[in-house]
Specification:
- This protein is α/β, with parallel strands linked by helices and 247 residues long.
- The protein folds into 2 domains: 50 residues, DNA polymerase, domain 1 (Orthogonal Bundle); 184 residues, Alpha-Beta Barrel (TIM Barrel), CATH 3.20.20.70.
- It has 8 helices and 9 strands.
- The strands form 2 sheets. The chain has a 7-stranded mixed sheet with strand order 1-2-3-4-7-8-9, covered by helices on one side. Strands 5-6 form a two-stranded antiparallel sheet.
- α1 packs across α2, α4 runs parallel beside α5 and α6 packs parallel to α8.
- The longest helix has 14 residues.
């Protein structure tokens, strides 16, 4: 758990932390449940004040909504999320007749250099932690009305914001485990889409580690020459290699 932020903790991590604090294991489950409600430590009211003060000594890794832009046409909401270090990432909430889909970012900036994308202009500043990705969702979940008898307001997730998810592979996998955990927000992997420029070795790993997530390839051109102009990664991983891994 060294260097891991609290929002990135698995339920096993939370129980282990409570053990180090001489607390029973069920406190770890309570902590995990609160985290998956998007709560701050101060909001965890079934934990003692003394315990909450000890939890504040662990880096948190939260996300807050800095700005909202609402479409007058269809109610789509663009969010600016502020991270604890002051960096900003974007997200979008789209309303469909089958539910609400949130698009999240996985990195501050991006290293892929695609000609059509503003996110890559300054390169990749840093990776988002699994907890920061999760809290993008939870920040919006907390303010979005849900249908009667619905478990949650957010029903679908697309990883198509700033950043290349497979360039932040380990945190992406941890996030997918957290967001689909039955004792957490419990979004089915089948309702999650991951969009990638195409890194074949990571796509093949994804098959083993996140088999039910929907894979989307950001292609943008059908021919290697044109795609290489638009997307420099194609010079390393041409279309045939990407599609072979995807298949």
């Amino acid at each position: 758990m060294k260097d891991k932020t609290l929002t990135s903790y698995s339920i096993e991590d939370a129980k282990a932390l409570m053990q180090t604090l001489s607390q029973p294991a069920f406190r770890g489950e309570q902590l995990f449940s609160w985290l998956h409600k998007g709560a701050t430590v101060d909001e965890m009211t079934n934990l003692s004040k003394e315990l909450r003060e000890k939890l504040k000594e662990v880096p948190f890794g939260g996300v807050e909504i800095a700005k909202r832009l609402v479409s007058q046409k269809d109610g789509t909401i663009k969010y600016l999320f502020k991270l604890e270090d002051g960096n900003i990432v974007e997200g979008v909430l789209v309303h469909y007749n089958y539910g609400n889909t949130i698009c999240i970012s996985t990195q501050v900036g991006c290293n892929m250099g695609c000609a059509f994308c503003a996110s890559t202009l300054e390169g990749c500043v840093r990776n988002l932690t699994a907890g920061e990705m999760l809290y993008e969702i939870l920040a919006v979940e907390r303010e979005t009305p849900k249908s009667e008898n619905a478990a949650r307001a957010i029903t679908n997730v697309v990883m198509m914001g700033s950043g290349e998810p497979l360039d932040n592979y380990e945190n992406t996998i941890t996030f997918l485990k957290l967001v689909s955990h039955p004792k957490g927000i419990n979004i089915s992997p089948r309702n999650i889409s991951l969009s990638t420029c195409g890194i074949p070795s990571k796509i093949i790993r994804l098959i083993e580690e996140a088999p039910h997530v929907t894979l989307s390839i950001s292609l943008h051109a059908p021919f290697d020459g044109l795609r290489s102009e638009l997307m420099p990664i194609n010079r390393v991983y041409p279309i045939a290699d990407v599609l072979s891994a995807a298949k």
